Fold these 4 entries.
Entry 1:
Amino acid sequence: MKSTFTVNSSFYNKLKHLDALAVDSVKGRLEDIARTAVDYSPVDTGAYVTSFSYTIGAGRPRGKSSDNLPKGQSLEGKQEEGYGNLMQDISRIKSIEDLDNIQLRNGSPHATDVEYGENWYGSGYFVFAKLESIYG
Amino acid sequence: MANDIYNTIRAALETHLSTTLSGTDIAYENVAFSPTTGTLFVKPTFIPTVTQPATRGLNPQLLYQGVFNVMVNAPEGSGPSLADTTCNTITNAFAATTDLSIVVGAETYIVRIRYAERQQGRIDTPWYAVPINIGWYIYNT
């Protein structure tokens, strides 16, 4: 005994539409996280704030050292550069399959010092801790 | 009450920490502290994040949330077990869904723990420092 069903092609179109809605929704969320991440980031040389990456597919995450870079850089300028980097990463998301595993990283060598402080009595900026509190 | 709520939240978290770690040195924020070399101590940091309306309408109840970071500093070179034991004690005491109640005047406030997450340790000479992030929230007007 056997039954054969034909699925109307409009069903697949609706699924594609749902996929697009899901991708747009996640992209919006990633943009919010990106904005918050750079807004919470300190700027001196700008190495930290421009070292954020969303890991999407292949590619090496950004990671700049602050060694030998000029200090006292523009807060807004470097934060916008960091935000632009993350927006560039988000623009690489084309389909729902790209959403399987996305991580926000900061590859600067001093990222841990920025997060927790350079020594026991210093206080860090807790950028990732704050992001987890808000978006986790 | 909104202006005082952070004092209340901090008190609830710090009281619970000091009760949990009775006898352990605690370096509270903006309080003079000199660690004793070779003796473990912890350093808590209170980090409020976003406050947002919990309901719609006029004068909504507010959701306050944030992080309570506890940095466990064990003597460098003493192995991981001392820090591990202290970290386990803290994460157990602040396990997710734990309620911390504190009475201020005639009101009882309940700070709820959303998560307790131990992070990777690192050397911060002469200490081996292990961060623990504790997510908290409270509903209040």
Entry 2:
Amino acid sequence: MRSPSVELTARSQRLVIFSLIAIGLGFLIVVQLRSQAAVARTLAAQDDTSVALLINDLNRANNQLIQQNAVLAEQQTQLQKALTSGGADSQALSKELTTLREVNGAIAVHGPGLEIRIQGPVMDFELQDALNNLRNAGAEAISLNGYRIIGSTPVVSRGDILMVAGHAVRTPLVMLVIGDAEQLGPAADLSASSLQTRVQVSIQRQDDLAITEVVTPRPVIYAQLGK
Amino acid sequence: MTVLASVSLATFLVAGLAATQFRSQPLPPSNRLARDEALRKSVNQLEDQNRALKARVQTLQADVKAGEDESARRSSAAQEVKAQLDEQKTFAGLTALHGPGLTVLLHDGTDPNSPVDHSLGWTIHYQDLQDIVNVLWASGAEAIAVNGQRIVPSTAFHYAGVNILVNNASRLSGPYTVIAVGDPPALANGVGNPDQLAELKSRNRIYGLGFSWLRSTRLSVPAYDATFLVKYAQPIG
């Protein structure tokens, strides 16, 4: 049996603790709402065209992500099926390996796409813009004058000379791009329209292009696995 | 206990009312504003969906990896393929990496509010990020991330209106932090080379646009938060 004074102190302590929790909870709710409002305010400052374009891009990206989820789910089911039956499905692994080798430019590929010929000198930033536009339009493999170009391929101007992955490339520039020609076309047109003021650009759709050049991955010296 | 409950309830209600007060701003009676609101709500919903889909991709990737690890334990053929797969995943940016490197910091400068200068040179454009990434690759970077988004073979920067987007419509906003893992002096020399990024450096002087870099002994870049789909390119042979 506790004395009345001890009981009173305990009650007061509980009162303070409960009040602090309630204040904290209320504060968190307000902070949460304020954060949402801050994000909305950033968006609110944008014009309708920007917001509409953003919606378009988000829809496109989400559709891509839905497809990625479907591919991964199928891959997992295939692996699991083999494991459940007591074996191992090295075919599922090989399939993924092929995809990554294509992405990394480590194997020769063919497929539909565009052949873009540029007659005249081009600066590094112009080529970068073109490559960026084509990747954004879903380019899956690119080569330029016999050199395979991947995401980490540097493009640099040394004076009038355009260097791709350390190799000088000279006009005419012939770029082969594999992907959905319907999507790649407008991206190529966009780049061509800015180049055509001073150089000649021709774009041809091809049903089947071959990119036989491959990239040898540079040795990893400084980076280590893990966060 | 009744007192306790009453005090807690009252405090919670006051906090809740504060939140409600914060939320309940009068909606102007205009269809246009209602339409604007609907557009922005759509963006929020699509961005929520985007985050959820990426989270689902990452969960599935972890499940697939567990299946691959187990397959490699059971079969020597699978083990051989798995070793090559791990190597390709590292090259493709599907694994987090750490090491020494360079951090490049960028932020918008000051709007000159000049009647003759409408260049928007005082803001960071997606092309600036693209140029910096290119210079870092040329200087030997082994892995790069921009505002936590790993640069992978399919990465493309672009504008959606005023928004800079990268990797499956991830919205980038300033200040921008570009992290590159590699040899810090080589990376710093590349970025500092007067022949490189000349236009950005000039805007840094004219508009006070933020552009600085810092060498570090340990930096980390996250893994790409999605995966790759190849639909049109087929292997030869």
Entry 3:
Amino acid sequence: MPEGVAGIAEMILIALVYLGIFSVAGLFLVLVERRVAAWFQLRIGPNRVGFQGILQTLADALKLVSKELTGTVRADKFLYNLAPYFVIISALMAMSVLPFSKEFHAFDINIGVLFLIAISSIGVIGILLGGWSSNNKFALIGAMRSGVQTISYELSVGLSLLTMVLISGSLQLSAIVEVQKNGWLIVQGHIPAVIAFMIFMISGTAETNRAPFDIVEAESELGAGFHTEYSGMKFAYFFLAEFINMFIIAAIAATVFFGGWLSPFGITESLPWLGVFWFLLKTFVLVFLMMWFRWTFPRLRVDQLLTLEWKYLLPVNLVNIVAMALIVWLNLTIQF
Amino acid sequence: MSYFSDIYKGIRTLLKGMSVTGRYFLNSRKGAITQQYPDNRDTLKMFDRFRGEVIMPHDENNEHACTGCQKCEIACPNGTIEIIWDRGIDEETGKKKKKIDQFIYHLGLCTMCGLCIDVCPTDAIEWGQNFENSVYDRTKLTRVLNKPGSTLRPGVED
């Protein structure tokens, strides 16, 4: 086989593996979300399709595939059909740089964190396109709110990750994980790292448009927000992308703050294949935290949302960066 | 410095809220309020104030407490209750006395407002716990609440 063909075949194989992970993780997260939501509200949740409802989302996906794709009469057809792909492709691209383990890492570039932040902002273009081209006032309001929200909270995501980059000294995700062999970054950077983690979780939740920052969808105000006019598989793309984005935010937090695929205190260092397990465990704990936020806090108004970002998170974040810089400069980090 | 106290207060109240829902999450196994209805039909117990339908309880001697005063019929806002009554001779006093022939209850018209039960001076009617009221023929929704051959319980009118 010539070199070029082999390279393309390899890329396609890896892409298929990632697509598989993408769909399975998406379906699984939707189910977990519904069960966890039910438990938070003293309900039972879906438990009929398969053992304890594990096939519920598969049945839902089948239903969505078989549904008619509808649209509004005067919608901008091209942009309307393009929007879901922006959202889902940006989510997929972000997944490619996540270090599942030392070996299981598709795309290890030296600007990994920057790439992740950049890619996660592309998703909002899909949301804006979808809202604009639907020719529906609710969709448009939802999309505009999404623009406001994402542009504001992008800052906090970037700055809180930058705080951690100060201590790790690299933007490459594999290097960030390597640094944490002497203690996870949240331990190494102690107080500023904890503050950065809290800010990252808040702004990450806002970035994924989940409650309490779901003014983009806001069922009780806007119908379904930017995807009001979408049905069938196109709706499912938006829906899956939301859950994958949640997974990505949790995975970034697990990588940057909690040591990625490293086991706690190196207890399974002799078994490197357990890296995937530790990575997924940490990620799902953080995903659970985001679900906990969602089913506890009420939705913020637009002005409250912007007050939180510009008056609280951003100044705290800037002071925090200086504090972290001082700590790194004076060698006050905790190393094991 | 209300700025920092606001941040502190915000974080504290958010954590308080999360502890409440977290406690719910941990207790959801035994505390779930969902009723898996057709499966637990045998053990399902409706709550005390549930309004399923109006019933007229009878005791073991096939006696009820309805004197036929028709207060419930007047109180009902949409004509759900019709009382067909008659006059009979009271054996003890020999006077003519009102007694019910049929207490007709149209379940299909009933809004479960409960005014008839509130107004009844002898507590002859009360709420039933049955909620499986669907039928294939709407004439079946018209019910006669007093059982055939039933009589007024002695002493109710005193």
Entry 4:
Amino acid sequence: MAPASGETFPDLVLADHAGNQRALSELVAGDPAVVQTYRGWWCPKEQAFFRKLVALQDEMEVAYTRIVSISIDPPPVAAAFRAGLGARWTFLSDPERVAQEQLGLRETTDTVHHPYVPAVFTLFPDRTVHRAYDGYWFWGRPTLEELRQDMRAITRAVRPDWSAPTPSTRDEGAEGHPGAAP
Amino acid sequence: MSLSRHWLALVGERPGDAAAAAPVHEADGTPAGFLAIWTRRAKPRPDARRIDARLLDHEGAEAHVSLVRPPAGVRLLFDDVAVQHARRAVLAAPPLDAVTTLLSDASHFEGSLTVARGDGVARLADDPFARIFPARLLRVGAGVVGRLPAPAGPVIERYGSAQPWPQDRFAYS
């Protein structure tokens, strides 16, 4: 079964688009993240949704938030799709469908490709699922505004200096980002 | 406040106080000194720069590197659009063995070190950071620089202004 809100997303270990083994925990690290499964480069719905994610990338890249995309495409295909999109996040490849089985996300209605069910999960840094979206129907996927709201909620929960440090809180020894204006 | 305490410099003589050092050669084989890394709070020498702490690897194999440094007297903000675009270009391209930006304060981009081995060596000639400042393509002996996981992307920001990109988490993470 795909993880639901409040559950922990499995720490998948898969090859990235360059063929290197990567653990999801290492990719998410200490940041809020959007983890997405997609059918494949050939699906018009995926192409439409990726164009939205690429648009969101301009915000994600300065907001200490991450994106990870997972499919059954082998690394060279994922790399080509990523490059064509202009995506600058990590794509993971599951051509053996091992993680797909673990997640219970095989799209049973496509008996040609046996792809992932399109799904989107917004995660806390410890991979606790904030919200899960079933994207089988396109309108089940999150809008960019919903993703922004999810990233805001998670960031607010995990950043100890969500409220800007003030001279008085600094005097009290509150932690902040070292020398940064996040 | 947590800072990277790993410093890097290209020096003429092997420093006795470095955590690691290895001889360096130009592409044509001409000796070019030693690449050294120190691990300490204080800057070990005036030309040393902070690096991503994960770069140091005593078991690291010989490698080719692109060492980008600003010309003497030239300073550029780390947040300059040119530096932003270079970081995006690094994330967009297939990853090489390692990359770190170089810092000495919280505000300025003071160069980069990109590490490659094998098939990646040829791509050092297209180092995005070399579009900002001049690069030297060098061969570094074993025992200094390792191989890092590629940045997860798409974050181009530093995790604290004294932490060299792409070091990828806040001190409390």
